[in-house]
Design a protein that fits this description.
Distance between the termini: 30 Å
Low-confidence stretches: 1-8
Mean pLDDT: 90
Length: 165
């Protein structure tokens, strides 16, 4: 897709977009996003841990997991994959559980930039109010940046040194 944006008037005001250039090949960065053995090492903002309950990475498959915050709060999480185009893009629906009325869509783009990879995470919420709540109450912009930073550190330090293999 060459980093093309998907913004239009129907999603304006309902999106959060974060991106990061990671000094690693696109296939490696994509793999870290798509294999259960990698995800618990980096998924989530600073201070959060992730425990997978079930994981099936295919269109229609689900990732059911919990996140534990720095204050020990447990957050139930559920993702279903709606599009997978290795190693270019992933689309998913993310909520607290299947049939969550507040679930949101996320789109990941993996773009080769020289020997590095630019990852763009675009999240589209059901309403502007949901987007604003995520940004203000849950600090979603900063959380997204921290998550991509954790992915960066994991891929450039951990995976290359054999962690998670």
């Amino acid at each position: 897709m060459g980093g093309a944006r998907h913004e239009d008037s129907t999603t304006a005001g309902r999106e959060i977009v974060v991106s990061r250039v990671i000094d690693a090949p696109r296939e490696l960065v994509f793999e870290a996003f798509t294999e259960e053995r990698h995800l618990s090492h980096w998924w989530g903002p600073e201070g959060f841990t992730t425990v997978t309950r079930s994981f099936a990475f295919d269109v229609g498959g689900e990732w059911v997991f919990t996140m534990r915050g720095p204050d020990e709060t447990i957050y139930p999480e559920w993702i279903t994959w709606t599009e997978i185009v290795p190693p270019e893009r992933i689309a998913l629906v993310h909520g607290e559980h299947r049939d969550d009325p507040n679930a949101f869509d996320s789109f990941l783009i993996f773009e080769t930039v020289g020997s590095s990879t630019r990852v763009e995470l675009r999240t589209v919420f059901p309403t502007t109010e949901h987007r604003n709540e995520a940004a203000e109450k849950y600090r979603a912009v900063e959380g997204g940046r921290q998550t991509l930073a954790a992915l960066d550190a994991y891929v450039t330090d951990g995976v290359r040194k054999g962690v998670g293999n």
